[in-house]
Amino acid sequence: MSSGGANSSNGSPRLAGPTTTRRRVADMMDAERSSNFSDVSDEEDNSNGNNGDHHHHYHHPVIRYWLLRSRMFFFAPETWLLKIGDAYSWFVTAVQSMRSGRHMGRRIFGGLLLLVFFSVFVKFSLMSGHVDLNGRREHGLFIVQTIKEDWAFAQKIVAEREASDAVKPLPVLEKFPIPEIWMKPNCDNYQKCISRPRNRIRTGTKTNGYLLVHANGGLNQMRTGICDMVAVAKIMNATLVLPSLDHESFWTDPSDFKDIFDWKHFIEVLNDDIEIVTSLPPQYAAIKPLHKAPVSWSKASYYRGEMVPLLKRHKVIKFTHTDSRLANNGLASSIQRLRCRANYEALRYTKEIEELGKILLNRLKKNNERYIALHLRYEKDMLAFTGCSHNLTAEEAEELRIMRYSVKHWKEKEIDSKEKRLQGGCPMSPREAALFLKAMGYPSTTTIYIVAGEIYGRNSMAAFRSEYPNVFTHTTLATEEELEPFKRYQNRLAALDYILALESDVFVYTYDGNMAKAVQGHRRFEGFRKTINPDRQNFVKLIDLFDEGAIPWEMFSEEVKNLHANRVGAPYLRESGESPRLEENFFANPFPGCVCNLSQERTSSLKSYQMSRRRVVLSR
Questions:
Q1: For residues 561 and 179, what is the distance between their CA atoms, to the nearest angstrom?
Q2: Which helix (H) or strand (E) holds 274?
Q3: Quick one: the chain helix, strand, coil %, rounded to 5?
Q4: Residue 121: predicted pLDDT
Q5: Do the Cβ atoms of 109 and 163 come closer than 8 Å?
Q6: Gap between the terminal Cα atoms of the chain
Q7: pLDDT of residue 178
Q8: Of 86, 220, 257, 436, which is least packed with CB atoms within 10 Å of its CB?
Q9: Are residues 303 and 232 in contact, defined by beta-carbon separation less than 8 angstroms?
Q10: What backbone torsions phi and psi does residue 102 show, to the nearest 5 degrees?
Q11: Cα(208)–Cα(509) distance, integer angstroms
Q12: pLDDT of residue 198
């Protein structure tokens, strides 16, 4: 008692009234420490039976302790402080008890349990509480916020800001119009229509035989020829063997079908149309096929009437030529659509060609730049074939003449180059092509991709580059390593050119070759992308007047623009001509056949509906 009482009297701050004495923090902490031990001693004495008014002496130091603690540990949650305080009191009591020496083992065991309890408590408090040291004060109290509460509060603010922003009108971003020189023609009422009719899906009908085809010519001539043979196989109910390609044309490319096209994709896409196999079955492999060259521009009746009986008899027929062996017009709509499915969906280039094509396309389109793909057919074989030598030297013209006479299947030998040019029968020279683009309004900074092989003539490209320095070919656009697998294969290089011509912002072709026909038709099918077809005959007259000084540049440019206002690839119907040889090629303009005019479709549907209603009324 005496000990407890002395401690109480020394540490008790009980006063008669408020004091104004200021004390240092260190002094307050010392006093706090002495009062704490005093309180513990008093509590122990009370447990021994001394239950006088000492409990009344215990409250005031605790109040002062909690006030000090709230200042020093303002960042901790209140529940933590209470539990830590209780644990501390228990610990001090245990220490004091151990001094007495009674029940020492029990007390040590209790102390260990206390440490375990305290460790587990701290661990789970940190895991579940996610205490953040940030907080806020409400009505003078410090409120600790958890991370979850902060996230919810932030989300609430974001939602409120978004709601307030939704009320405010958004700023209108200025949209720069596309310059007219890059705009494609209006084609809002047109769309692709090549779906397979349900009644034309291939069934298990027995085949009439196997059809071998040898695609002849360059890449694009072989491409369209293969599509025709797919349609012919459908007409004849024949099984098509994967086509073989021409290895003996001017470029003597050894590539075969699987080297250029994705043959598995080709078979898969056309599986519901015709049966395609990679080779003849063993029972027919030893049979010598009947060789035939189909008549050019033939209709379905020719193949059904003349070729089917031969196929049934011989079981295997080989067509030695595929170029232009099917009519442009006068075929069933299902056959025309099949030709387009073969061309625009089934014939996909190999993965290696497609991937390099995408890489080169990204380089041309860097920073969203636009580019022109110029099909400049000023190549040696084309100039020799047409007999055109404008802007070339006498030695170069003679070299072309010799080449023309050396190729036996080129029937026309003696050609007047000047007359041929004035008739519009010659490809544009590089200088003429540069002046054409400049007159059409394309600035000198325009990126130009040349879709062609090697341009003939020692100084032919100098005049073009003086007007348009940003000129690229697959040779200059790709690295040596990228181009190495393609160098020996002109048809694979032509496939790269096809991809870049198809995806260009503007396609300009300077001669009506097979590639020009194939690419412009594909661009029409893909939404009538801008494709300029120069009027060579009238353009030659204008450029000669300009060179002679008869008209100034301004007049020349205006006349060129007016002349080509309606030659930019806008939709128009392909019409039958006096003869198949003179009419427009189906693959150059697949409308009608694979492109539909929605407004006309609606009109015809409405008329059909009205006619059917009228018949119903009359029948009543």
A1: 15
A2: none
A3: 55, 10, 35
A4: 56
A5: no
A6: 124
A7: 82
A8: 86
A9: yes
A10: -85, 140
A11: 42
A12: 84
Whether residue 523 contacts residue 245, with contact meaning beta carbons closer than 8 Å, is answered with no
Residue of 465, 549, 570, 460 whose CA lies nearest to 185: 570
pLDDT at 204: 78
* Bridge partners, residue 372, by sequence: 448, 506
Residue 35's pLDDT is 45
The tokens for 211 are 């059809």
pLDDT < 50 regions, the chain: 1-60, 62-63, 66-67, 73, 75, 126, 128-162, 165-168, 170-173
Q: How high is the pLDDT of residue 541?
A: 97
What is the share, in percent, of the chain residues with pLDDT greater than 90? Answer: 60
What separation in angstroms does the CA of 221 have from each of 158, 172, 249, 459, 515? 62, 50, 11, 30, 8
The string of DSSP letters for 71-126 reads: HHTTTS-HHHHHHHHHHHHHHHHHHHHHHHTTTHHHHHHHHHHHHHHHHHHHHHHH
In the 3-class helix/strand/coil scheme, how is 321-346 assigned residue by residue?
A: CCCCCECCCCCCHHHHHHHHHHHHHH
**At 169, which amino acid appears?**
P
**For residue 265, what are its two tokens?**
């994709």
DSSP string, 201-243: S--SPPP--EEEEEE-SSHHHHHHHHHHHHHHHHHHT-EEEPP
pLDDT the model gives residue 200: 82
pLDDT, position 31: 43
Q: What is the DSSP string of 453-504?
A: SPBPSTTHHHHHHHH---EE-HHHHS-HHHHGGGTT-HHHHHHHHHHHHHTS
Tens of pLDDT, residues 533-554: 999 999 999 999 999 999 999 9
What pairing do the DSSP bridges indicate for beta strands 595-597 and 190-192? antiparallel
* Residue in the block written with tokens 């704490």: 36
Torsion of CA 311, 312, 314, 316, to 10 degrees: 50
